């Protein structure tokens, strides 16, 4: 998946001084919360592995 | 004596949390995994823990390219870690993986400047509620390419 055009601007590394000049590009970007899950460790004699079920 | 430990920390594809992965494209699915071992008493007593996982941008030279965010006042400020905090997690197993994941690495750090490509690391802690027990991980380095 290619980043959107707007993302390309966000990809550019900026010093803090540069960032202050270009603040509008980030002003409306909000954090995306992840999801969490847990799963038991696979038994040592098993090759089958489970990723468990994710939850918020 | 009751114990809890984090034996390993790493990044991974959320579809395979048992296999560490240390290089990601910006839009790859992304998970931070803590491998936790806990005393059986924590399971039987239905103890709860709080977990914090962090993605860390180690550059902190303000004249270079440290991670930064825009704070609630609209100011650009250094922000070297992207923290994800989870409270009231239960001990269901004595040996397990606790993982936090996003649909893409980009989602996790979309709001963080200078975090889209480079070499970074993850780390985490767990804090067992109502006890003296806690555990902290080592760090695990990974790479992100645009």
Structural class by SSE content of chain A:
alpha+beta
Q: Tell me the number of strands of chain B.
A: 11
Name the poorly predicted regions of chain A: 46-56
Biggest sheet strand order of chain A reads 1-2
How many domain modules of chain B? 1
Summed up, what is this model?
Chain A is an alpha+beta fold and 56 residues long. Chain A contains two helices and two strands; from the N terminus they run ααββ.
Report on this structure:
The complex is a heterodimer of chains A (56) and B (146). Chain A contains two helices and two strands. Chain A has helices at residues 5-11, 16-21; strands at 35-40, 53-55. Chain A has a two-stranded antiparallel ribbon. Chain A is elongated and about 55 Å long. The two termini of chain A are 25 Å apart. The model of chain A is unreliable at 46-56 (pLDDT under 50). Chain B is mainly β. Chain B has one domain (4-145): Immunoglobulin-like (Sandwich). Helices cover 7% and strands 51% of the residues of chain B. Chain B has two helices and eleven strands. Chain B has helices spanning 40-44, 105-109, and strands at residues 4-12, 23-25, 30-38, 48-56, 68-70, 76-78, 81-90, 95-102, 118-128, 134-136, 140-145. The longest helix of chain B has 5 residues, at 40-44. The radius of gyration of chain B is 16 Å and the shape is globular. Strand 1 (35-40) of chain A pairs antiparallel with strand 8 of chain B, so a sheet runs across the interface.
